[in-house]
Every structure is written in C-alpha cells, then in structure tokens.
TrEMBL record:
Residues annotated for Mn(2+) binding in this entry: E153, H220, D233
Origin: domain of life: Bacteria
Entry protein name: CRISPR-associated endonuclease Cas1
Function comment: CRISPR (clustered regularly interspaced short palindromic repeat), is an adaptive immune system that provides protection against mobile genetic elements (viruses, transposable elements and conjugative plasmids). CRISPR clusters contain spacers, sequences complementary to antecedent mobile elements, and target invading nucleic acids. CRISPR clusters are transcribed and processed into CRISPR RNA (crRNA). Acts as a dsDNA endonuclease. Involved in the integration of spacer DNA into the CRISPR cassette.
HAMAP family, per the entry: Cas1
Family: Belongs to the CRISPR-associated endonuclease Cas1 family.
Enzyme class, spelled out: hydrolase
Assigned EC number: 3.1.-.-
C-alpha cells in the first residue's frame, strides 16, 4: 500500500465521527511524545528496546488529557481537531485543568441557549435551581434565592461527607485543598482532588463538544472554567465523593481514583448523561437525549424571522 493510500484511509470522514455521547471518556498521557504518522496518531516513548509506539483511537476519545512531560506535533493536533477530539492541558496525574482546545466544526445552537440563560438574572437563577434539583434529587421551594441555594448545597455536602466517613471509617473528614502542601494531604483529600480534576477534564470536553462556553457559569463565576465547575458538581455526590472515601487506606489514592473513575464513567454511562443534563439545564422544554452536536451550519440572524439561510442574495427581495 502506498503512503498516499494509507493517508487517505487514515483521514476521518463525517460518517466515521462518533457522537460525543458515544465516545470514550478520557485518555491521560504524560512523559510521551504524541505524533502523527502515515496511519494515525500515536504516543511514542524511548525505551532501552528502542522507540515504542501506542496508537490512539482519536475518533473514539472525547478528551485527551496532556500531562507534564508531554509534547505533541502540529500534524497530530490537526488530526485531533478534525476528529473533534478536545485536548485539555492538565497537571501531574490529571490534577488541575489549565486549558482546552475547541473543535471548530460545531453549531452555536447550545451556545446561544446558554448565553440567553446566563444574561438574564431570572433565567440564570432558574438554571441554578435546576442544577440543585438534578444534583440532590429534591425540589427547591419557590422563591429560594441563590444565597439560600448555596447554603442548602453546603449543608447537603457536609452531611454527605459525614455519612461517607462513617461508612468507610475514615475518621472525621474536612475538605482541604492546598497546592503548597499537596503531599501532606490525607488519602481521601488526594483521591477527591484527583477524581475531581479528571471529572473537570471530561466535563470540559463535553461542554466544548456541544459548542457551549466553559466560562459562562450559573453558580460559579470569574474563571474560564466556571460552567465546567457548575456541571461537574452535578456528579460529585454520586460519583467522586464515594470513590474518594473508598480509597481512605490506599497507598496511591490519586492513581486509584483515576482508575476507579474511568470504570464509573463506563458503568454509569456518565458521558451521555452529561450531554443530556447540559441540554436539559439550558432548555428543559426542547432538549432531546439523542441530540447531537453536528457539523457547522451557517445561518443569518433576523430579529423577526429568527434564523434565515445564508448564502442567499437578499438584494433580489427589493431591499
């Protein structure tokens, strides 16, 4: 097979691209060089036996987490972009999320819905209420303010931590996250931070894949990851907190938390749940679980007609 033929086979087509809900959750890589060869994207590392390569299923990975010591070539980045794979730069072991790269072949449908909700105070509060109800499975009394909602959330999480500490016999627990004293943290805090960071990365990837802005949060504000934190909070009580407390005696809680979180993503089908939850939060009346971010569809805005087709010469309408 010629080089040109191999490149044609490796090039993605629209039919090959999976929905974000069908993608694998995330792939973490560090201390490797990610390159593109004639057949695909691979991670390569120098060993005593020579250069070893592992090919990455870029079209089936929603989020590629790049840890310290990782380098990536321009050709590899181009392939990831064509496949719609989000690339997120993270700290060691997936802890902390620094930046993400957005695929360009997206519609702005959900971004526009997000902006409309975010820009209106009443609509923004309504989204925050829906987040609380989705997170804890209970209704919020009418007229509840955002400050009251924060207080309710804080009490619920404290009660959850007490319950999990008793169940796993980890002793009295206090959430503590101090990057300057990272190695001094207890196993539960280390596991909780590592699991949360990976959850942020996956949530960030879903938000980018839907075409939403990770910066326009409804509860969190003032950071480029505000909406990421909002959405990730929906799953902490059900997923990351139980995982972290189950690792109270682990000798490597960060590694074990990432491994168990990956299993939870698969067992709970959390990726499609995140897609559906974001859609329902932003537009509960029209969100459909099978909605899929599609290829770019360009249209023109009209204050009376809504969206009208682009690529049309409207001068013939007597303008």
């Amino acid at each position: 097979m010629t080089t040109a033929a191999r490149r044609r086979l490796a090039a993605p087509t629209l039919a090959m691209l999976p929905r974000v809900a069908d993608s694998l959750s995330f792939l973490y890589a560090d201390v490797v060089r990610i390159v593109q060869d004639d057949t695909g994207v691979c991670a390569q590392v120098d060993t005593p036996r020579g250069v070893e390569r592992v090919y990455l299923p870029t079209a089936a990975v929603s989020c590629l987490l790049l840890g310290p010591g990782t380098s990536i070539t321009h050709r590899a980045m181009s392939t990831l972009a064509r496949h719609g794979t989000s690339v997120v730069c993270v700290g060691s072991g997936g802890v902390r999320c620094y930046a993400g790269i957005v695929p360009t072949s997206l519609t702005t449908n959900w971004l526009e819905k997000q902006v409309r909700c975010w820009a209106d105070d009443q609509a923004r509060l309504a989204v925050a209420v829906r987040m609380y109800e989705r997170r804890f499975g209970e209704s919020v009394p009418e007229g509840t303010s955002l400050a009251q909602l924060r207080g309710m959330e804080g009490q619920r999480m404290k009660a959850l931590y007490r319950l999990l500490a008793q169940r796993h016999r980890t002793g009295k627990f206090r959430r503590n996250y101090d990057p300057a004293k990272w190695e001094e943290q207890d196993p539960v805090n280390l596991a909780l931070s590592a699991a949360s960071a990976c959850l942020y990365g996956v949530t960030h990837a879903v938000i980018l894949a839907l075409g939403c802005s990770p910066a326009l949060g409804f509860v969190h504000s003032g950071t480029q990851h505000a909406f990421v934190y909002d959405v990730a909070d929906l799953y902490k009580a059900k997923v990351t907190a139980p995982i972290a407390f189950s690792l109270g005696s682990s000798t490597d809680p960060e590694r074990d938390a990432r491994r168990k979180l990956r299993e939870e993503f698969r067992l709970l089908k959390l990726m499609p749940a995140i897609v559906t939850d974001i859609q329902r939060l932003l537009d509960p009346d029209t969100a459909r679980p099978d909605s899929q971010p599609g290829v770019e569809i360009l249209s023109l805005w009209d204050p009376e007609l809504g969206q009208v087709p682009s690529g049309v010469n409207y001068g013939e309408d007597g303008w």
